[in-house]
Design goal:
The protein has 261 residues and is of the alpha/beta class. Helices cover 34% and strands 23% of the residues.
């Protein structure tokens, strides 16, 4: 049974191969409850394989994996009730409104007061002003936020976000970042896979770097920075990045624009 002190996710000695290709070669990883862990790695490093094993979509060759205290190999139904998975693409019904998408999922899960659940999530994800609009009219960031809101129906304690901002523009990425931060603030444990280093810096309490099937380093951003030599002090003229310029021109008040995009 899950306990409040045990990690929300615990991985020990995880191995997985596809024929003769070793993808995971002894992965050890813990994710504390109510925290955000960013799993970094290049394409083919094994990030999505780990998520699929955690989500009971793929069987490991060796090792022990637990989600919310339940063993993935032997307690799959309990594991599936403990998490929600959000991938790279927003799986929303474009014909339905934002509210109707949420109400539909709540009814499919046989929850009481689906309208109340929908309105609460619309408010949490700053979509209340666009609740009556068809999801097909939403911007990329709004659609992704709606998808995350849909995945939270039923209050799963753990959520897996697999490359959640792939293909989004800078302003939409910040909208999703705000939503992810709110999840952890409200007690949800988040495992985030990403290739974007700035995304990990913005969101993660803990960062793990996966390379060639193994975790190279695992710690806070401060701990990871301490692995490199101390910086030397130099006086340089700092120029704004292209992202700084873009957000200054069009995204300065993205919070106020969320419902109108």
């Amino acid at each position: 049974m899950p306990t409040s002190t045990a990690p929300a996710i615990r991985i020990r000695g995880l191995e997985k191969s596809y024929k003769h290709l070793e993808v995971l070669r002894g992965v050890d990883l813990d994710v504390a409850r109510g925290s955000i862990l960013a799993l970094l790695g290049s394409n083919g490093s094994g990030k999505t394989t780990i998520v699929k094993i955690l989500a009971t979509l793929l069987k490991a060759d060796a090792g022990n994996v637990r989600v919310n205290g339940f063993d993935v190999a032997h307690q799959a139904p309990e594991v599936r009730e403990s998490f929600s998975l959000t991938g790279q693409f927003a799986a929303v019904d474009e014909i339905l409104t934002g509210r109707e998408n949420l109400v539909l999922v709540a009814r499919l899960r046989h929850l009481e007061n689906p309208e109340v659940i929908a309105d609460d999530l619309l408010n949490r994800f700053s979509l209340d002003q666009a609740a009556s609009r068809r999801a097909g009219t939403y911007s990329g960031g709004m659609r992704r936020r709606l998808h995350i809101a849909m995945s939270l129906i039923g209050n799963p304690p753990v959520i897996f976000l697999d490359e959640p901002t792939t293909g989004l523009d800078p302003e939409a990425r910040i909208e999703v970042w705000d939503a992810v931060k709110a999840l952890a603030h409200q007690g949800t444990t988040v495992l985030l896979t990403t290739q974007y280093l700035d995304e990990a810096e913005q969101l993660a309490d803990q960062i793990a770097i996966l390379h060639e099937g193994r975790i190279l380093v695992n710690g806070t951003l401060t701990e990871l920075k301490a692995l490199l030599p101390a910086p030397t002090v130099e006086f340089v003229e700092k120029q704004p990045s292209l992202e700084d310029i873009f957000l200054a021109l069009v995204g300065g008040n993205h919070q106020d624009k969320k419902a109108s995009l």
